[in-house]
């Protein structure tokens, strides 16, 4: 069997000017990065006045079995093109740190991939590197301000702005800096996050244009003074420099699928501590250019899906026309209690139990008033009986399920799914937001927990309750909430698979992200700097004298 | 008066395909990065069999007055083109950290600049970011290996491989990492260097091709075992992954001067702890394509110049045909004892004293058997008498001096200089290396100190002497030496301007760089992570809604 990179390397890749033309871009709207990548800048009103149909791909709670959400997203876009619908796909950019750590790509798989796969997974067009630069420039300016007499009275013990690197490096989670004597700064505790966890990443993907980005950057709260007043980037005076560093990163990147479907890949915020979807600019641009835009949200429907519908949709000014929930028989069996080693054998009992996870997501997604469709991403070990069980289960929620066999067949493996999506997208939908913009933070969280997670309620820690009282004084208490919760469970306990009931969500603390414009709601701990495994993927990656890469996935 | 960036923004910039064509590149030999930058890959034997003439631009010891070596390099290339000689310029890439710190560009100035100036000074084509990624991936793999049972018995107290960021950040010079308990690594002391100080930067600029680079990366010594045996990247097994991360960074970058002279800008190693010149690949490629290649070496002739002639030349397989030594009246007056505030007034006494600095460099450069020419980079405050003094002084060394007025006039300000360079380049030269490859390290250092610096001799610290005995056992004692010395003085005392005599150079320690293939000879301390000033340049940089940047320089 061919590996993903072998399939990608053997593919027919069109020159990027041909993809740009196919996408409907004028020559002034794109600039090349190599022969098969481009950055694009499209005016919000330059193309179609009626936006295309938006298809959101989300999933059940992820398991170690793998769900293949990106693969289905790419395959569905190819399938829509295959049935004659002019379609683009809009994805997030992969983070380099995990590429060197754990195998497993973010560019789809098998015959449903975006290419050039290796470049996209390595440095791509440098967006993440620009974010790393801007992030660490701000960090250096903060410590320099403290060192140079601390005119802003920044309390070094109350800094929120850490440093960032796009590397899986657990040794950088907790560090002390500024050691080495009086000429090397002021000693203090600090830490590094992986670049995708930076607030600048969230901002980049939310900004409509350079000035919107600069205004957001100015509002970032980097810490507090000795009087516990917030200090912002505006106070430091470097929003212009940071925006300058991100002037190209703000432009969406154009590539193609293996079937030459134009693909916009831009931004990569986490789906727990941030909004978890590609950029507003990329999505808007794609909607202007294509009749159908297929996009995905990170993790399951409870995290990325909810954030797309409650947070991104108002900013985008456009709700999804269809929601596709991806599930696999394997993953559902894990939700039903099977260990990963037992997934290749049919087990209708485990599947029946695990389907409850799908059920909760179908219940929560259908409430938004948008057509919902299930995509069963096929694995070779799936039996017809198991697939029929999923289809029957979905029907009980009024939802049709279709098999997607895109890993092995590309778009041809999802023709039925594509037809169903195209048909559903024509239905005029009545989008029903989950909460009102001026609901209190706690009200917003309760609605999410009860309606989306199927939980019983919310418990605030003393710290979180105290923070909310402070936030009310600062006018931050009506901000949208971004739930940071384990992706593996509907609850805040990663071990509770399936569809747990009667659980409470425990809010440990809030992290205000004033630049991005939301409050992160921390339930449990979220690791913002991964580590490498005992056998990192980097051990297996190699390149030959002709530049041919092996072992990337 | 217009600023550098205003001049650059107003310039007529040709599309990069036109520059590629002018340079003689076939379409398969380059790929675009935006509309005005490209990466190129040229086979070593694809073009002219007879290489072009190589012009090395170096200078007196730098002073805060500024010498404008890059400006003269660019202006001279434009002037050579102006008098009908097909010329390319080959420069180093600027480092982003200092761009956010101190004003002052590395892309020339005034009407002798390379463009797009802002892009080149910001992220350019991502080479430095790729180096940062590769450097920190290796660091993460090292700490992960220690964390995962330490199979290589690495002594965490004897690690040589620090972490790297392209940011001026003094707070990262000395840090402790791995804090936070058993799941966050093994606590140890560490530090960050600025990316240009990474051995990977030296390697990138020395490598002939991918396999040469991989072999060099394998040889990097990252530290020692508990038994004090060296541990290499080969032992860690990630040379393939690191080379993969640098697969595009190894390709030279093509841009243009304001006069549309093709320019290759590639690599940026320090001139003290590394070789201080652009890449071997870029220089070789330019020599294949053009009749004249003008390149520069970092800092003064004692540092970058010496390293170019003694270290780079054998690797390049080609010595310079002409050496141009840049001086300014202002800087010479500082070498003569004037403070920076007094430089605008004529002072023949100070100039006469300061000329001794030029004298030492002319003496050392002429010994290589290659024609030497002085370029006096004109400032508006220079008097005709002062310039005449410099010309007369140079003549005593058998060297002609010419005024270069390229900041104000571009290539038109250096026609005479260009004609003299072109004429000198036709003289068959008899290159005389300073030392033999199999001289002992101490012999090499002594020859550099006595002949190039005009010093009395060398003193080794106890540590350095002990290291040399160890190196002899490992077979490292015949490696080329790379002197890490203050750039401001011929001696190792930055305060000794002019031409100090009877001084000794004190070798504190050696740093073996087995991947790059040299021993760094540390005299005094060299700061490998700069700090930001009290008013960083980042405070003044801004961008408007049309993407127009201000305050970059």
From TrEMBL, chains A, B:
<keyword id="KW-0436">Ligase</keyword>
<dbReference type="InterPro" id="IPR000559">
    <property type="entry name" value="Formate_THF_ligase"/>
</dbReference>
<dbReference type="GO" id="GO:0005524">
    <property type="term" value="F:ATP binding"/>
</dbReference>
<dbReference type="Pfam" id="PF01268">
    <property type="entry name" value="FTHFS"/>
</dbReference>
<keyword id="KW-0067">ATP-binding</keyword>
<dbReference type="InterPro" id="IPR027417">
    <property type="entry name" value="P-loop_NTPase"/>
</dbReference>
<comment type="similarity">
    <text>Belongs to the formate--tetrahydrofolate ligase family.</text>
</comment>
<keyword id="KW-0547">Nucleotide-binding</keyword>
<protein>
    <recommendedName>
        <fullName>Formate--tetrahydrofolate ligase</fullName>
        <ecNumber>6.3.4.3</ecNumber>
    </recommendedName>
</protein>
<comment type="pathway">
    <text>One-carbon metabolism; tetrahydrofolate interconversion.</text>
</comment>
<dbReference type="GO" id="GO:0035999">
    <property type="term" value="P:tetrahydrofolate interconversion"/>
</dbReference>
<dbReference type="GO" id="GO:0004329">
    <property type="term" value="F:formate-tetrahydrofolate ligase activity"/>
</dbReference>
<keyword id="KW-0554">One-carbon metabolism</keyword>
<feature type="binding site">
    <location>
        <begin position="63"/>
        <end position="70"/>
    </location>
    <ligand>
        <name>ATP</name>
    </ligand>
</feature>
<dbReference type="InterPro" id="IPR020628">
    <property type="entry name" value="Formate_THF_ligase_CS"/>
</dbReference>
């Amino acid at each position: 069997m061919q590996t993903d990179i072998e399939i990608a390397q053997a593919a027919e890749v069109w020159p990027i000017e041909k993809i740009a033309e196919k996408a409907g871009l004028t020559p002034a709207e794109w600039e090349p990065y190599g022969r098969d990548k481009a950055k694009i800048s499209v005016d919000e009103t330059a193309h179609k006045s009626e936006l295309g149909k938006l298809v959101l791909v989300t999933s059940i709670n992820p398991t170690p079995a793998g769900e293949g959400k990106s693969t289905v997203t790419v395959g569905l876009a190819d399938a829509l093109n295959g049935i004659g619908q002019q379609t683009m796909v809009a994805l997030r950019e992969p983070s380099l740190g995990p590429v060197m750590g754990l195998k497993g790509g973010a560019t789809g798989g098998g015959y449903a991939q975006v290419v050039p796969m290796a470049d996209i997974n390595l440095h791509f067009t440098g967006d993440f590197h620009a974010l790393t630069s801007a992030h660490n420039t701000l960090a250096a300016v903060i410590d320099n301000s403290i060192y140079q007499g601390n005119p802003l009275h920044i309390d070094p013990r109350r800094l929120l702005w850490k440093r960032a690197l796009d590397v899986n490096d657990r040794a950088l989670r907790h560090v002390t800096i500024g050691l080495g004597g009086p000429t090397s700064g002021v000693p203090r505790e600090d830490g590094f996050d992986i670049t995708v966890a930076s607030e600048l990443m969230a901002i980049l993907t939310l900004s409509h244009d350079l000035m919107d980005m600069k205004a957001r950057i100015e509002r970032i709260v980097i810490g507090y003074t000795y009087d516990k007043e917030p200090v912002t980037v505006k106070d430091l005076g470097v929003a212009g420099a940071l925006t300058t560093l991100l002037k190209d990163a703000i432009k969406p990147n154009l590539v193609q699928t293996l079937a030459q479907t134009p693909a916009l890949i831009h931004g990569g915020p986490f789906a727990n501590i941030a909004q978890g979807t590609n950029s507003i600019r990329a999505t808007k641009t794609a909607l202007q250019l294509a009749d159908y835009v297929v996009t995905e949200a990170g993790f399951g429907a409870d995290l990325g899906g909810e954030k797309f519908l409650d947070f991104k949709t108002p900013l985008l000014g456009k709700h999804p026309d269809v929601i596709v929930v991806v599930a696999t028989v394997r993953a559902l069996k894990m939700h039903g209690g099977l260990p990963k080693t037992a997934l290749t054998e049919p087990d209708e009992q485990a599947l029946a139990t695990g389907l409850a996870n799908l059920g909760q997501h179908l219940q929560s997604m259908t409430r938004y008033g948008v057509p919902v469709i299930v995509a069963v991403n096929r694995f070779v070990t799936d039996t017809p009986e198991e697939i029929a069980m999923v289809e029957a289960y979905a029907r009980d929620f009024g939802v049709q399920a279709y098999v997607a066999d895109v890993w092995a067949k590309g778009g041809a493996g999802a023709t039925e799914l594509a037809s169903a999506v195209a048909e559903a997208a024509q239905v005029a939908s009545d989008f029903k937001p989950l909460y009102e913009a001026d609901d209190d933070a706690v009200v917003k969280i309760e609605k999410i927990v009860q309606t989306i997670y199927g939980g019983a309620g919310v418990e605030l820690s003393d710290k979180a309750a105290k923070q909310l009282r402070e936030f009310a004084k600062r006018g931050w208490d009506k901000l949208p909430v971004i739930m940071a919760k384990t992706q593996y469970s509907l609850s805040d306990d990663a071990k509770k698979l399936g569809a747990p009931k009667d659980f409470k969500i425990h809010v440990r603390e809030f992290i205000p992200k004033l630049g991005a414009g939301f409050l992160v709601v921390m339930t449990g701990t979220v690791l913002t700097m991964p580590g490498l495994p005992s056998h990192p993927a980097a051990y297996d990656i190699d390149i030959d004298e002709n530049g041919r890469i092996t072992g990337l996935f």
